[in-house]
Amino acid sequence: MGRLLSSHPSRQVRELPDGTDTVRVDLPGNTQLLFVRDAAVMATLAERRGLDRGNGVNLLRSVFGTGTLFLMPHDTAHHRRAGEFNRLFSQRQTDASTPDIAARACRAVETVGAAVAAAPETPVDMQDVILRYLFDVGAWAITGVDVDLGAEVAVFRRGVDALHREATAMLKTALAANAPWTADYMAREARDAAREFQEAGRRMLIAGAERHGLADTLALRALKRYGIDPASVDASTRFPPGILVEVSMNLAASLFTTGNLIERTLDHFERHPDELRALRLSIREDFPAGVRDLPQLRNCPTLRALLPVMLAQSPVGIVSRDVVEPTEFVDGDGIHHQLRQGDAVIFDVEGMQARQALKLDQALSEEGRPTLDVLNQRHDDVMQVFFHGPNQCPGRFLAVADSALFLIEMLSSFDLHSLDRQRPLERGIVNRLGGSPLMRLSPVRPARAEASPVPATPTRTLPPSVGRAISPP
Question: Contact, 265 vs 275, CB < 8 A?
């Protein structure tokens, strides 16, 4: 019991005995923790209103704020906000944004190429590279314009490190759930960093307000929800704390997950050189000129090889839900379970995703078809990591698109060698690589990887109703 309470469920679920769909752990206070490892049961329970985000996320709410989408209970406010996200980040809108995201991926890799050409022996901080790319895409998609948030990368990284130190143990989660006031005395460094990161939200709101009347974006929706006339916003505007939390933390949540997915995928291909060689052959066949100006992601051998690895490296190892109303169900083994208010359910989405590998391969076998269309149609079969039901991740299409486009460019352009050869996987709120993110890079395709000036392209604006946010489910 002590070990269970001192670690995170995403670590404990990997140590459960095989052969059963559900594993029950009795906790003090006549409550139970139920681990669910069957996708059909997860799909069923995801629709039950008796399971929701309740007191079990009090500690995270003290850091991210109560208005962050992935921590909101499934009520009317959540329904409206999720509807906004789903409309702005739909498959269709992501397809429309593909050329813009691809151009940003190319610029990010070209910037790395210039740095490597200037100092070939100097290690590259790949975590910094990935985050700067995602900040670029994320700020543009939230606001509709380019917003340079590079200065906020350091505080974001500091906050993530603090969150892993301060908010991983189940004991702290349980304490904050049963005595909400205690959350204010935990995760203090992470909370301080989150407050500092609100500067990113302020800058996005100012930039996004300039596009009033031109397109529908998350920034404009947030301003209108708080009764702020976008035309009145300028650099001196003082925003209510709630809107700063909402905009900055929704961006942070997207970076929190997608950044780790990209970093872990790079690590996978470094450790599997045969797979990397095969992938590069596919990339050269499918994308001879790279992804710049690519109009749409369509099924091809490259994506058939890359997407299963990406989804297997998803940092979302588990999804937890509190039992807020008595609920009962029968699992795949025919066992009847009665859940009481105060119990908790942990869904092993990492294990479920691994068991869907064959279905994913089959879904991607139809070459030439729009990839996001396939994933949308087969979502509940092949993308378990984005959960099910009303709390399904609204940024799943953007997570796939911006990750894939960056990875295609980076993996086809450079050999990457980690200075830290044995980076451990740290399981927690999200699963991430420990150790040093420093890597030595060497060009493998001189025509595309050698140094070249980063083009000063004019700012492109979003198609109507396009935005970006990716959050843990």
Answer: no
d(CA 297, CA 275): 21
Which of 138-142, 187-191, 369-373, 445-449 has the weakest average pLDDT?
445-449
Q: Per-residue pLDDT averaged across 319-332, rounded?
A: 92
Amino acid type, 448: R
Angle at 14 between CA 417 and CA 347, to 5 degrees: 110
Report the chain's C-alpha Rg in angstroms: 22
Whether the per-residue pLDDT at 380 is higher than 90: the answer is: no
The predicted pLDDT at position 122 comes to 96
**Whole-number Å distance between alpha carbons of 148 and 146:** 7
The domain limits of the chain are 2-449
pLDDT of residue 1: 53
Other CB atoms within a 10 A radius of the CB of residue 335 amount to: 12
What's the confidence (pLDDT) of residue 459?
41
Q: Which amino acid is at 432?
A: R
Q: Give pLDDT, residue 473.
A: 54
Per-residue H/E/C for the chain: CHHHHHCCHHHHHHHCCCCCCEEEEEECCCEEEEEECCHHHHHHHHCCCCEECCHHHHHHHHHHCCCCHHHCCCCHHHHHHHHHHHHHCCHHHHHHHHHHHHHHHHHHHHHHHHHHHHCCCCCEEHHHHHHHHHHHHHHHHHHCCCCCCHHHHHHHHHHHHHHHHHCCCHHHHHHHHHCHHHHHHCCHHHHHHHHHHHHHHHHHHHHHHCCCCCCCCHHHHHHHHCCCCHHHCCCCCCCCHHHHHHHHHHHHHHHHHHHHHHHHHHHHHHHCHHHHHHHHHHHHHHCCCCCCCCCCCECCHHHHHHHHHHHHCCCCCCEEEEECCCEEEECCCCCEEEECCCCEEEECHHHHHHHCHHHHHHHCCCCCCEHHHHHHHCHHHHCHHHCCHHHCCCCHHHHHHHHHHHHHHHHHHEEEEECCCCCCEECCCCCEECCCCEEEEEECCHHHHCCCCCCCCCCCCCCCCCCCCCCCC
The CATH number of the domain covering residues in 2-449: 1.10.630.10
Percent of the chain whose pLDDT exceeds 90: 58
**CA 83 – CA 97 distance, rounded (Å):** 19
Name the pTM for this structure.
Answer: 0.90
Contact 201, 213 (CB under 8 A): no
Q: Which is nearest to 328 in space by CA: 24, 73, 45, 52? A: 45
